[in-house]
From TrEMBL, chains A, B:
This is D-ribitol-5-phosphate cytidylyltransferase. Residues 284-374 form the D-ribitol-5-phosphate cytidylyltransferase C-terminal domain. It comes from the Eukaryota. One of its GO terms (molecular function) is D-ribitol-5-phosphate cytidylyltransferase activity. It is an enzyme of class 2 (transferase). Residues 1-23 are annotated as: Disordered. InterPro entries: IspD/TarI, ISPD_C, ISPD_synthase_CS, Nucleotide-diphossugar_trans. Its main location: cytoplasm. SUPFAM superfamilies: Nucleotide-diphospho-sugar transferases. Cytidylyltransferase required for protein O-linked mannosylation. Catalyzes the formation of CDP-ribitol nucleotide sugar from D-ribitol 5-phosphate. CDP-ribitol is a substrate of FKTN during the biosynthesis of the phosphorylated O-mannosyl trisaccharide (N-acetylgalactosamine-beta-3-N-acetylglucosamine-beta-4-(phosphate-6-)mannose), a carbohydrate structure present in alpha-dystroglycan (DAG1), which is required for binding laminin G-like domain-containing extracellular proteins with high affinity. Its EC number is 2.7.7.40. Homodimer. The lineage of its organism: Eukaryota, Metazoa, Chordata, Craniata, Vertebrata.
């Protein structure tokens, strides 16, 4: 069992960052948390998370295990870790990976500056991997930096879009009921086939739910369940809530979760995840421009850009200020920079900005210079906004350095 | 009940077309079909399809019902209809749409030149819509062009990626067993909650399956089931196989289906569908070039393009010939045209080709001219291939008419 670099509690993300980018205001989550704290008899809870990541992703039809598949050049699991890291009250995150992927995982932790991560070796099956993670948390000894939590969250490496809100709900429910898990309505009817492959029973869809992640447990409840459960359970079981019920006699509280909790399973899910990430990192644009420029065309351009990008947050900076902010990564939440240069026909400022962005370790940026034509300025500005919006939304690396005419 | 224009048996598609574009060779399917015909005692079967399309798509979180959501500017349902139309042995396709969407549906049929389609009014629920479709097929009268089929396929408007292969399997199984349906392994464990929202039972995932579409039935089996079933079934039921079992005592044969059968339900599914369609229409490229050009750079370019686009089929045409083929839409399966113009520095040929493509009613095309730089030709060709591949894969309309430098 090894420990990742502790580092700062909130890293500078080299890759696109999700949670902070889709209106999950820190304020909101903080208040929800204090609400949870304010529950009768509740106090600050020691919470850790276990993330089984030993799967081989055979259903994906790609050689790479799905949790390591790149999305915008960043491995899927890194988005999931980031989502958990942003929840400051999760003290430790224990990730179970196979021996052959241990090195790759260490590199991911280093490259994306993940913190609070401990690695354990994955088992043959999902349940065995989770059990290994729990064991690491259980031994409350000086030789490890881990200490036994009161509540443990179990999540999947391939569910990158988990939000603080649902984590908070399952943790609070676990504290009260001993176990809790997120559920979703069924999309298809579930049936049970007979031995000869014919329909035996079809279940009433409305009476059943899909059991999703995250789940949370009082540590002793789930750890005891794993200690007592049979080899058959460890080999063929898929459901932690079931183990808690069967071996710790704990009926899990079921919490309705959002659709984005779905599990990245097939190639199409990678496509969907990439589109969701692209959409989420398109919500903030930093427009860098000389304040001495005419206000009118600038406003016209920003208006057009807003029309092209739905609910986009546009902040503008002066060139020098933008540089400082980028270096101090005060613009952590922004992955889109537009340099507006209406009057001057040289690109000095733009070049400076590009250089600074390339130096910085912000998200993968695909800088493209857009030149407005002189005549019909208004029309060019609208066209420019359309082009910029599509560059932001599609992030095609093949266009790096192209000159596009608006 | 109204009938769409019969038209040609195989329309010129104005929109991207799927089945023909992902290696489902007519030859292959024909042989499979004759294999089915060759079954002991079997003959050509009269087959029709019913497509309930009355849903309002509340889960999608968008105002438009999901079956009408555009993908590359073409409504989702049109892809599904196209997939069914390509199976020549499906005689009639009955679509159930709500009264308010009847007009929109008629426009889709006309715009995308769908054939063999009949429209009926959708009911309040999925089962009622299907029942309406079956009634339309049941009345074997002179005043309708529909005649009662031996086997009826029931499919969803929001499962656009259905292939002839699985349709053939369910139809053959239905003929033998009376009913058949496609199934998939469960992705999540299914649980049944108690009244107080706690875990009651969790089902063993390996013993259950998700019931998907398409399904097929001997017409009399499913029609009788619908005639006899209760109002409760029609209101709250979700599973046709269940009705066949309960009211016609017919145990459906379950057929393992491919993952692409999944049902477009959430916004992320639209993202996934769009990516799949983009990928599928990127598999064929028609390179138009003057045969008098140097062979070597051309070959180098085509090689580079092949490296960028996985398993792409590249056919080359001379300018004049390409023009004729486009006009006669002999290139129906191709949505990607690259005009190579290495030596000449004017764009006359390219302009001609563009004009012809714009005139033709082929798929939405986003023509972009790529100019290779003079020096380091080899490198430019590689760069050009990278740019062209990304244009083909991403199809960004915002880049129309741009000049990109390789």
């Amino acid at each position: 069992m090894e420990r990742g670099s502790p580092g700062a509690s909130r890293p500078v993300e080299p890759g696109p960052c999700l949670s902070s980018l889709r209106g999950a205001e820190p304020a909101a989550s903080a208040s929800t948390l204090s609400a949870a704290r304010a529950q009768p008899g509740s106090r600050v809870i020691a919470v850790a998370a276990v993330l089984p990541a030993g799967g081989c992703g055979e259903r994906m039809g790609v050689p790479t295990p799905k949790q390591f598949c790149p999305i915008l050049e960043r491995p899927l699991i890194s988005y999931t870790l980031q989502a958990l890291e942003r929840v400051y009250w999760i003290k430790d995150i224990v990730v179970a990976v196979t021996r052959e992927n241990m090195g790759a995982m260490r590199n991911i932790i280093q490259k994306y500056q993940h913190t609070r991560i401990s690695l354990v070796e994955a088992g043959e099956t999902r349940h065995r991997s989770i059990f290994n993670g729990l064991k690491a948390l259980a031994k409350d000894q000086p030789d490890t930096q881990l200490s036994k939590p009161e509540v443990v969250i179990i999540h999947d490496a391939v569910r990158p879009f988990v939000e603080e809100d649902v984590l908070l709900k399952v943790v609070a429910a676990a504290k009260e009921h001993g176990a809790a898990g997120a559920i979703r309505p069924l999309v298809s009817t579930v049936i049970s086939p007979s031995a000869d492959g014919c329909l035996e029973i079809s279940l009433e869809r409305a009476r059943h739910r899909a059991s999703e992640m995250p789940q949370a447990f009082l540590f002793d409840v789930i750890y005891e369940a794993y200690r007592q459960c049979s080899d058959y359970d460890l080999e063929f079981g898929t459901e932690c809530l079931h183990l808690a019920l069967k071996y710790s006699h704990t009926k899990a509280k079921l919490v309705e979760g959002p659709p984005d909790l779905w599990k990245v399973t097939y190639k199409r899910d990678l496509y969907a995840a990439e589109s969701i990430i692209k959409e989420r990192i398109s919500h903030a644009v930093c427009v860098v421009m000389d304040p001495k420029q005419d206000k009118e065309p600038v406003d016209h351009f920003l208006e057009a850009l807003k029309n092209e990008l739905n609910d986009v947050k546009i902040e503008s900076r002066e060139p020098g200020q933008a540089g400082r902010d980028i270096q101090q990564s005060n613009l952590e939440q922004c992955y889109n920079f537009v340099s507006m240069n209406i009057m001057m026909s040289d690109f000095q400022e733009t070049r400076k900005l590009l250089h600074m962005l390339e130096e910085s370790n912000l998200s993968i940026l695909y800088p493209v210079v857009v030149v407005s034509g002189e005549q019909k300025l208004q029309e060019s500005l609208r066209q420019g906004a359309i082009i910029i919006a599509s560059l932001i939304k599609e992030r095609s690396s093949a266009l790096v350095g192209q000159l596009l005419v608006a």
